[in-house]
Amino acid sequence: MQTLAIIGSQWGDEGKGKITDLLGQKCDLVVRYQGGNNAGHTIIVGNKKTVLHLIPSGILHPHCVSLIGHGVVFDPEAFCKELDEVVNSGVEVTPKNLKISENATVITAYNKLLDVQRESKGPVKIGTTGRGIGPAYEDKAARKAIKIKDLLDLERLTKKLRQNAEEKIVLFEAKYKTEYPSVEAEAKRLFELGERVAPFVCDTFSYLDQALTANKKVLYEGAQGVLLDVDYGTYPYVTSSNTSAGGIYTGAGVSGKHLDEVLGITKAYTTRVGEGPFPSELFDEVGKHIQTKGNEVGATTGRTRRCGWLDLPLLKYSVKASNITSLALTKVDILCGIDTLKICIGYKYKGEIIDCAYPGIDLAEVEPVLKEVPPFNDTFTDGKELSPSLKSYIETIEQTVGIPVGIIAYGPERSEIKFLQNYF
User: Which end of the chain has the smaller Cβ count within 10 Å, N or C?
Assistant: First the structure.
């Protein structure tokens, strides 16, 4: 195996960071290909916790090169803060082991301000993080984005920023009645940040192409999850990038090759942050228990996550939409000890029973079909077999979605994981 993609198969927050960290030990490059600092990957090693937002999880391994691809929207201020935190924690970060695409889109102060104003004063709450992700992707699609390479030339940056800000300034003044930085001030701020970023900037597409040609092992690290994909997700309650495996080809590159394995990270239950329909959501004490025991609070936003039973119709859809080839089932320990355990195996929708949440289905109108399954209370002691009940839970997932579970994770530590399949 040369290439492996790690994709969130739900609404994000599935525990991708730890899996990426573990498998990063076995590869040469870890590549972020979409999203921005609206993602948060938490990695716990012993008593040390590292939270990464922009920097790929491979940075914790000295032999591994971490690469931020051109599909990422990049906040240079957030990056510099994160870089300082990572370095101060004892991790060595140099231009040799961290590379940033010169063509990645920059998140400006105008993008962040517009994001916050829309969410706070607009007619519909999408549940954005307010970090300017959506407006930055809008600039990219409108062909007027500021790119990282623009930060290295103050004159060019000022000219492009003036063109970029023209329409936004009208909105700030006429619609939102809010203050905003001048073009000159924002250009100066970005240029100074660019001087800090400059040593890491390179042509990442060519670097990745050469690595693949040299048979280097590459891990692609996704942010968020398939159900938040701007094309495949539960629109409009989605992020603004392609979180599925398709985003790898547009946001980083595979250079004429195919992905050998697409690993879908899946919680043993389902969570969702922000707005939008959630068929298997729990509003009772069991839901509160899962939320508390699972510490379901966002690493980036601090928002509490909504919790529900594992939704197999949504998972089956994610598998199809992102060509997922195997699953990593995380946070299995959180369900241990629940007396009445259920799993969503289908939906009642317009007089029919369906087992896959295909596009066009209004999730707000479905009624979940719940199946009660035998509870489990595994201790996950080294060398001890999984209980028959947990094996049955896993088999139900595999039989429904049609692919194997290759990894079981039952805690936040690197050691709290069981491989059922070899990767790399």
Answer: N
Averaged over 325-331, what is the pLDDT?
98
What ranges in 28-153 are assigned the alpha helix state H? 76-88, 109-121, 133-141
33 close to 247: Cβ distance less than 8 angstroms? yes
Q: From the candidates 21, 28, 41, 61, which is the catalytic residue?
A: 41
Of 3.40.440.10, 3.65.10.10, 3.40.1190.10, 3.30.1330.120, which CATH number belongs to 3-101+202-251?
3.40.440.10
Convert the pLDDT of each residue in 82-104 to its tens digit.
Answer: 999 999 988 999 999 999 999 99
Domain coordinates in residue numbering, the chain: 3-101+202-251, 105-196, 265-419
**What is residue 301's predicted lDDT score, i.e. its pLDDT?**
65
Q: Which CATH number fits domain 105-196: 1.20.1050.10, 3.90.1150.10, 3.40.50.1820, 1.10.300.10?
A: 1.10.300.10
- Structure-block tokens of residue 141: 């699609």
Cβ-contact 145, 136 below 8 angstroms: yes
Strand order in the sheet with 405-409: 201-202, 98-101, 65-68, 29-32, 218-221, 3-8, 261-267, 326-330, 405-409, 417-419
CATH architecture of 265-419: Alpha-Beta Complex (3.90)
CA distance 143 to 137: 10
- Give the tokens for residue 14: 């599935």
Give catalytic status of residue 41 as yes or no. yes
Token digits for 321?
């939409």
Cα 261 to the chain's mean position, in Å?
A: 18
pTM above 0.85, yes or no: yes
pLDDT, one tens digit per residue, over 141-175 is: 999 999 999 999 999 999 999 999 999 999 999 99
